[in-house]
Write a sequence for this structure.
């Protein structure tokens, strides 16, 4: 069982289709660079003009990050993607109880160095209410730029969409080899086993009825279902606390 990003992560979207360009204005593409190493990537989503949510396991020590907003094709450069905005990460704020062994509390906030310009192509997505139950069988949308197949490896330049279903916690408890914590994790996938997320999709949102209920976290290394998402509603109060501290203390704030 692997985290779903980076060199060891959760991969891209299998069995999906190209998203309608700029139809997911909350989507963020995170490029993570450490000296003398290849660039790693994750997904994420904008919740405020200066805050992006992603997975905690996307953070690499002594690395620098750039968030790309408003892009559909991440390989194209301006002026081919004139709507895109590239903003450096000011601060990486992992959940204080993140456990890299179990992937519990796999959530991180990225404070941007400057505020994004909000427009038709860049918009924050509203957070869910704390602790709501997402009914089993709910159909949700997952978007990302990760791999579309494993062998041979093939990544996507353009944003891909896939529809997945929320599954009962017992499905993940029964089928996965790592411990599954129903309080902080959400189980989802394709009952037919034909759709999945793959490398490069970690940190992206599982959006149900217009709000992000999950964050791509970990699952089988071959992209099979079910897969595990951090349960966003579990962390809403922590997110709001962090954002308030950032407001109150400004650029000098540390956590």
């Amino acid at each position: 069982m692997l985290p779903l990003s980076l060199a060891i992560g959760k991969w891209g979207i299998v069995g999906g289709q190209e998203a309608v360009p700029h139809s997911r204005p909350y989507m963020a593409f995170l490029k993570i660079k450490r000296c003398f190493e290849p660039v790693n990537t994750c997904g994420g989503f904008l919740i405020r003009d200066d805050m992006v949510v992603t997975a905690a396991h996307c953070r690499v020590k002594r690395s620098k990050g750039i968030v790309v907003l408003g892009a559909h094709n991440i390989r194209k450069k301006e002026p081919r993607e004139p709507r895109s905005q590239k903003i450096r990460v000011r601060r990486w704020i992992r959940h204080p109880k993140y456990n890299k062994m179990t992937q519990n509390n796999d959530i991180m906030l990225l404070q941007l160095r400057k505020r994004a310009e909000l427009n038709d192509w860049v918009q924050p997505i509203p957070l869910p209410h704390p602790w709501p139950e997402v009914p089993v069988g709910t159909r949700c949308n997952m978007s990302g730029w990760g791999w579309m197949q494993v062998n041979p490896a093939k990544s996507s330049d353009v944003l891909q969409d896939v529809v997945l279903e929320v599954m009962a916690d017992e499905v993940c408890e029964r089928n996965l080899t790592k411990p599954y914590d129903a309080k902080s994790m959400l189980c989802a996938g394709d009952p037919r086993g034909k759709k999945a997320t793959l490398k490069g999709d970690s940190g992206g949102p599982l959006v149900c009825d217009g709000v992000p209920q999950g964050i791509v976290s970990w699952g089988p290394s071959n992209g099979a279902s079910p897969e595990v998402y951090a349960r966003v509603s579990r962390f809403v109060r922590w997110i709001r606390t962090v954002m308030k501290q950032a407001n109150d203390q400004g650029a000098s704030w540390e956590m």
User: Anything to note?
Assistant: The chain has a mean pLDDT of 84. The chain has two domains: 25-124+235-249, 139-233. Helices lie at 169-175, 236-249.
